[in-house]
Amino acid sequence: MKSLRTTVLLVFLSIYASAHIPFLKPNLFNIPYDRLHIESSFTESPFQADYPMESPFFYLINSHGEKTILYPVAKTIAAVYLEPKITKDGTYRVHSSFKKGPIYNAIETSNGKLYFAEDIKKKKGQMTKLQYFSSADTYVTKGQNDYQPNILNSGIEIVPITPPNSILVNDKATFKVYDNGKPASNARIVIAYDNEHYNVKNVIEYYDVENERESNIYANKDGKFTFIPEKAGLVLLFVNIHKKIDDSLTESYNTSLVLEVNLP
Fold this sequence. Notes:
It contains one helix and 18 strands. By secondary structure, the chain is mainly β. It has one domain. The strands form three sheets. Strands 4, 5, 8, 9, 10, 14, 15, 17 and 18 form a nine-stranded mixed β-sheet that branches. Strands 1, 2, 3, 6 and 7 form a five-stranded antiparallel β-sheet that branches. The relative contact order is 0.18.
């Protein structure tokens, strides 16, 4: 009989191996009163919290780029919770800095694609390792909007050019993807709406290298892309960038941006 410790470890590894994606979800995007909390979690089906996304640092960042460290106020088996105290009007970025995650056994095929977990058995190629990193962002606004695009020049970032509190159904919104402060040319942006896992045609994993959803968007050479939301509600934009260190190791950087799409 396996020990309890071994069983828990196997369950933990199986959760990680299913390629969860990170997210930050506020209970309010436009804040009319001081009861804001933000859920930090990993998921396979946005926005269903599976297990906590802890971070070296959580930040609240104002339009001038000034940062305040946020400390979790609670942790459950599925999520970590933040309660920023916002007293001044403006639009604020809530940021979970990059966290080093698990390292997977992986296989790299002759065309440079990386597979791990159960896919290793289905593919042929060179065995390697895949080191996982994750971060996440969202934006909230209190009173008067003063949004200005700001970048941290660290890791992968999806930065709204369009004010994030004014994203409307069937209206163009512009964004830019950065990699350590430089435009991330041709980055793939995976779009995920709330509850879309009930749609049978979208059963493919968001992280999957073979993810070729019709809703995917690709940035141009300057890292810029336009998104036209199809419906109101919560939406998650997810970017995954692999960086090959050498034949034995590739680093996988994963980040998401959660927004609220409003009716006109």
